[in-house]
Amino acid sequence: MKREIKTTNDGSKTLFINELNENYHSHHGALQEAKHVFIKNGLNLIYDYEINILELGFGTGLNVLVTIDEYLKTDKNHIINYFSLEKYPINESEIEDLAYFELFDNAELKNIYQKIHHSEWEKNIEITEGFNLKKINCDFFDLANIELPAINLVYFDCFGARVQPDLWEKPLFEMVADKMAQNGLLTTYSSKGSVRRILQDLNFKVEKKDGPPGKREMINAIKL
Predict the structure, then answer these.
(1) Do residues 25 and 11 lie in contact, with contact meaning Cβ atoms separated by under 8 Å?
(2) What was the pLDDT predicted at 173?
(3) Which ranges in 35-164 belong to alpha helices (H)?
(4) Is the pTM of this model over 0.85?
(5) Quick one: pLDDT band at residue 188, thresholds 50, 70, 90?
């Protein structure tokens, strides 16, 4: 499917799929959405020494970059292992045009951005000291067959239910839950009632949180 780059309201860029009429990120602001959903209401709520993160899906790599940016602001006395699934990786020209490193004050992120995107798929790569990335080129429904450590934090960042409803139904959430540690956190921009009910059926404690700009609510869910 053809993709084009668009600029969102906070000045950060996203990809737009014409056939689906769908953005990879909120048009209200790609960067502020990523920070609000996955950092403020995700990473910053996890206090384990070793944090295993599962992302669905890698997309433009923005969520990885904001996670590393946040990690570099800490005293780095912990380890992050980041596993990201993606069926349709973006191409070199898109990587160059998105240029997300330009959104951050830390000059180190330019090299990190390149390393994130040019790291070999299916291999554990140390992006920076204490931060390891494994990109997995697969369909989300292959998750059951992928060997992972117990996951402490899930970034559930699939395309919206309007265009991919099967990604917001029980079978995929069951696979995700099976990979999670007890008290693991799943965070997503969605606030759909059907998603909340599915997660509750799977023994999650579900909480509605204030959403990012342009969205009233989002979901946090803790696996009990």
Answers:
(1) no
(2) 98
(3) 62-73, 92-98, 109-118
(4) yes
(5) very high
Asked if pLDDT for residue 20 goes beyond 90, the answer is no
**Cα-based angle 95, 121, 56 (whole degrees, multiple of 5):** 75
Q: Which residue's structure tokens are 């769908």?
A: 22
Q: Is the peptide bond before 211 cis (omega within 30 degrees of 0)?
A: no
Q: Which residues pair with 222 in a beta bridge?
A: 185, 205
Residue 53's alpha-carbon distances to 5, 29, 59, 96, 155, in angstroms, are 27, 23, 15, 26, 7
Which of 12-42 are b and which e, b meaning 16 or more Cβ less than 10 Å from the residue's Cβ?
A: bbbbbbeeeeebbbbebbbbbbbbbbbbbbb
Q: For the segment 158-187, what is each residue's pLDDT rounded down to a tens digit?
A: 999 999 999 999 999 999 999 999 999 999
Joined together, the tokens standing for residue 25 give 């990120």
Q: Which helix (H) or strand (E) holds 25?
A: none
Name the DSSP class of 139.
-
Phi, psi of 101 (to 5 degrees): -60, -25
Contacts 24+ apart (CB under 8 A), 117-126: 117/61, 117/90, 121/89, 124/81
Inter-CA distances, 38 with 19, 31, 94, 111, Å: 27, 11, 23, 22
Within 8 A by CB and 6+ apart from 55, the residues are 63, 64, 82, 83, 84, 85, 154, 155, 157
What is residue 29's three-state secondary structure? coil
